[in-house]
Batch of 4 targets.
Target 1
Amino acid sequence: PPLDEILNLHDFENIAKQVLPEKAWAYYSSAADDEITHRENHAAYHRIWFRPRILRDVTKVDWSTTILGQKSSMPVYISATALGKLGHPDGEINLTRAAAKQGVIQMIPTLASCSFDEIVDAAQPGQVQFFQLYVNRDRAITKKLVQHAESRGVKGLFITVDAPQLGRREKDMRMKFEDADPSVVSSSGSQGVDRSQGAARAISSFIDTALKWDDLKWFKSITKMPLILKGVQCWEDALQAYDFGVAGVVLSNHGGRQLDFARSGIEVLVEVVANLKEKRGLEFPNDKFQLFVDGGVRRATDVIKAVALGATAVGVGRPFLYAFSAYGSEGVEKALQILHDEFEMNMRLLGAPTLKDIVPAMVDASNLQSH
Ligand code: FNR
């Protein structure tokens, strides 16, 4: 269907399923084991209800914000997703172009199909990009990647901490990666590829399983970029991250692709905010230690719920992959435009002219926690 018939982010998924080669669909859409966490990620938002306010001037509404000190047109960023060329020949550059047009931040994955420099070169002057790091057990390689990213102007380093081993994505494992086009994987981060068991396992064999808290000191010694841990799943680790002096955490289960039965990021957010307030006196959102959430975000209402509960911004993964798979960068632009339009309407209907007006009392999250 033509792009103007696309009404919401779910539509891109249905179309991508029809147009993508079977292998690409398997890699993009799959999640761990029985995909319970994957389904829960979106379902959790269905347990949160709004408490809108009335009779406030909502002629002008403004949902722009700053993420790690960088301007963003909305409290949404494009999360890192590997292997963009499985879906479209321009791969991750589709995301770079659309991010520029819509004023949002792109997180570049270690396992991009395009090379890191191609993605940075595709950015407009002043366009902000973050970098997602899979830590290679060869620290010399990691150091080179990190320092190169910093030298190219990347504004935040998101270290993925939920993937010492890649989860079992069985849909993907049924596909052999060996006859896939080798150009789909850039050589930047991966080395020693085992091609026998699906795309995910093939590209991840270099990841350091020995990574630990103490290593954060080493990261701080090699870069001045803000460090963010991507894949925190309970308040204890969020507190420890804060005490280690990192700039923030992403409450994420990797889109349900790692540990099945991990809780949704939005549910974890509630306990993180409560415990960091109680134990460290922190209020959220907060510029010194920012909380991000990802997984299952498909509507501006989902984003607004996360913001109300204390998140600075949320990450979105699959919908943008599906959008460029079907329509290239214009698809991603359209996806962002849909979110933009949804923000405008929903903030009006909530009686919230700015993000600051989206306070915890605007949501009823009492059904959120499963216990
Ligand atoms: C991912 N994600 C991911 N995360 C990461 O840190 N490094 C990576 O290489 C990838 N690769 C990747 C590939 C694909 C196909 C998907 C779907 C996801 C996880 C991603 O950053 C994010 O956490 C989730 O995608 C968020 O969930 P949704 O928005 O896809 O539901």
Target 2
Amino acid sequence: MKVSVIGTGYVGLVTGACLADMGNEVMCLDVDEAKIRSLERGIIPIHEPGLDEIVKRNVEAGRLVFTLDAKKAAEFGEVQMIAVGTPPDEDGSADLQYVLAAARNIGRHMPDYRVIVDKSTVPVGTGDRVEAAVREELAKRGADIDFAVVSNPEFLKEGAAVDDCMKPDRIVLGLSDARAEAIMRELYQPFQRNHERTLVMSRRAAELTKYAANAMLATRISFMNDLSRLAEVVGVDIEDVRRGIGSDPRIGYSFLYAGTGYGGSCFPKDVQALMRTADEHGAPLRLLAAVEAVNDDQKTTLVRKAVKRFGALQGRRFAIWGLAFKPNTDDMREAPARSVIEALWAEGASVCAYDPIAADECRRIYGERADLTLAASPLEAVRGADALMIVTEWKEFRSPPFDEIRARLKHPVILDGRNLYEPEAVRRHGLEYHSVGRPAAL
Ligand code: NAD
């Protein structure tokens, strides 16, 4: 099948590469010239395990091509997948300008029947707006061409995007058009050969399902963070509670970790956008307001603990382990590390940070500053620091050389925002250990 993918970010590039790997002919369009030029030279602009090889393999096979030409892309694929960004507008609602621009481009240039698939995360009713935008462009050129607009929200996780795309838990299709359904089922058939995982529903239900999924996951995290404050006060280890409730199959273990809050390009913006949609429709989601408030607070919990431990932070220096919003990605959009670093700066402290792959992204965001050093290794980051703060749970932080850390720190203090260690084990190395939601925490 011929597929055009509009937008070559995390979702578009991964989807395009995986579809090509299944034997489809894929053309990826972007408006970012630098991105397209580097993709043409085989340079992948994002860090995603396994993506390099898939892109390379399919480019070489001629099944995956990149373009800046919107007309060519609209003409190419019978399936047109929109995977552009939907960043938050000033009021928190999803900014649909890129989605609608992509839709208008398709309407302007499509030569015959098209299935227009919205993979971007968009509020309920956006499919109708995409449909209207395409229809308007067709009317302008007096063309009478049939098309269908399908909502096909994306559930991949950054850091495991290729795997998620190749082996999806479910494929949600929001549509009411038999021809489009047949095409979409055919397109996704290779991804679900052992058992069918397609859920067909109304377009509006598919749009809401995506927000509901992210809002639910964010709620679980905020629930545990809220509970962790109580656990600290009553002398309970939140990790015991996590294991105690996670073992209940009705609850499960995923997304039950207390820590420094959720971040990334999806949860914060999707929770906000869903709240705005609910407000607009006069059905405010009260629970989500609390989820967001708990998370905002949680992002700076390590800094508050540091103030309790050290008093004024003016002139102090903190080692930070982990900058990406989660492991296995270089994405720092809304990363808790940014809240921690900025709160430390606001207190007059400086930072020496280490992250296995997000250092360049950090440099791009903050530029050269006297109060920010990027270390080449975890141990280099702690040298001479007043304390170590752990913000992202990279695997390489799980069994660190505690004695060497103690020897390098000015004060033997670890503030762990991800509860990576058994408190007693760390303390045996002569380190003061403060984590989240555990007895004797600051
Ligand atoms: P991204 O910012 O990484 O990439 C978006 C790309 O679209 C950019 O390269 C941009 O230049 C391009 N673009 C913008 N307007 C365009 C246009 N008119 N024509 C062609 N290209 C255009 O975004 P992303 O993280 O891939 O997210 C895309 C959508 O998928 C968002 O709605 C997001 O919420 C959703 N989503 C993201 C993830 C994730 O983990 N990143 C997961 C599921 C869903």
Target 3
Amino acid sequence: MYQFLDIAYFQNQFIPFQSATLSIATHALHYGTSAFGGLRGIPDPHQRNQILLFRLDRHCQRLSQSAKFLNYDLSAEAIQSTIETFVQKNRPQSSFYIRPLVYTSDLGIAPRLHNIEKNFLIYGIELGDYLSPDGVSCRFSSWCRQEDRSLPLRGKVGGAYITSSLAKTEAVESGFDEAILLNAQGKVSEASGMNIFAVRRGCLITPGADQDILEGITRDSVIQLAKEAGIEVIERPLDKSELLIADEVFLSGTAAKITPVKQIENYALPLDRPITQLLRDKLTAITENRDHSHPEWIFKVQL
Ligand code: PMP
């Protein structure tokens, strides 16, 4: 199981993780009325007593926007300063993942977002690789990615993850590692918790923000790094068949980082992945503070 960081932020206090518990009647547990974030950090390999957080500002902005969809006013600045204190209290010793969550914390029934208490909590886990860095096998899900007219897909809202969970379990129980979801128009949208990229004839193609994707922060970083490396990036609707004959396919996400796809259904993808490799090496070097080309992406927390 996961190794949890010792201290959690819960009900406006920093307390031991084990003591941070909720009632079984908590509203969000019943209706998925929550929204969460997920960001990575590492102890600075070059400087003791310093923790590096990747794109903290963007993660806090996205969570603040997600909170807005829940009728909860929580500023990005408030989230950011609480996360900084959370890191100082925990003094993590190895690579970790922070999970901030906003949720309807009232006890009681009736789905709604008005006239109901909300709250904000944070916990963390130690986290190395989430998916195999050597590559994963994927299947197309029989479940379709939700549409933005059904729920706010630009928020990372808890209830949306029933579809991700159905798709992931369907994939794993049928012998694959991951699921690729198509949207209601039948175009490629994303994986269960990652965005997707394909390389065709040297161009990097990824479904645009209008394809019912979560606007991933890793996706945004990958697009910027590719453009800086002189790779043409095209954001456009992507067909299922294009993935099957792509030169390279990879998934991007905070937990998954850049994970190559080695197989989709019964189609094997080439093992030579120069663009995936280049982008992965670059992103890793930046997150580990070995490459200083994007200092604005690295937030330093002093312990
Ligand atoms: N799509 C979904 C559904 C996700 O849960 C995630 C993970 N947050 C992503 C894409 C990738 O987003 P990010 O790069 O910001 O982690």
Target 4
Amino acid sequence: MTLHTKFRALGASVAAALMVASTASAMELRAWNIHVEDYPNSIALESFAAEVAEKTGGDVTVKLFHNGVLGNQPDAIEQVRLGILDMGQFNLGPMGQSIPETNVVSLPFIFPSIPKMYELMDGDVGDAISAGMEDKGMRALAWYDSGARSFYNSVRPINSPDDVEGLKLRVMSNNLFVGMVEALDGNATPMAFGEVYQSIKTGVVDGAENNPPSYHSVNHYEVAQYYSLTEHLIIPECVCISNAAWDKLTAEQQEIVKTAARNSAEEQRTLWQAREAASMEAVQAGGVTVNTIDDKGPFQEKMAVVYDGFLAENPDLSDLVNLIRNAN
Ligand code: BDP
């Protein structure tokens, strides 16, 4: 064998070894998303996936499943916790049943404003919640905006807590939200997001509560035409990854994935602001009567029982609750 062919042979075997190594380390992360493809969150997730693929040279790819095709949110959360699914773009509301720390942001009226929510979630509060998630099998890579949720129904506008009395309202799956509606003398029905449109249409419930983009994107506004801006819940969302998937990434890949998620959150927050305004216009053009509520005090007072019950059951979370409340 000449020196030349020897080197060629060596080169070929090194190349083969590299190929094996790169195939072995190539990883596809399957990611759950409930939203339609043109929703701000979905668009931002696409950017996330593109950045991860590019920066890892294709060694890590993210396969996105939009429209909730992989199942409802409470189930998907459990699957990510167990490592059956790799990733999810979750609202923290339905996480409360398995990850207690996430419940602090599901307390009604806890954040004084969206900018304050960003600041706290990007700091100590977000870190504490993510630590709680890690104990339960997943971690948050970045926080998305989900605006403020307000009530909508097919019966009457809500101006004061009395107007909620007797209304059947769908809530996300979490006992805190049942307590919230009951504190207003309404009837709460926890239900999967995908069932809400039909349930309002057929009168199983009178309405639900959500932010303007979701009220619009899945057409709830068509069947519940009173939208009352109670803005009672500001619940952030996460781009989450299972601990099992995270641990399979190299340190360098983890850094890439985290940075890409944070970059996507910046994009999502910008897209969100624009989409909120557009959705408000669209639902009104679609016949919705919107009413604002200048004094939310009477609603807030009714929530004392929700806070008392929560703190009695979760005394260890009172510091986290106070951290947010004192930031007011
Ligand atoms: C939307 C959230 C989504 C929830 C949905 C709901 O983005 O994660 O599943 O509300 O009400 O705003 O279930």
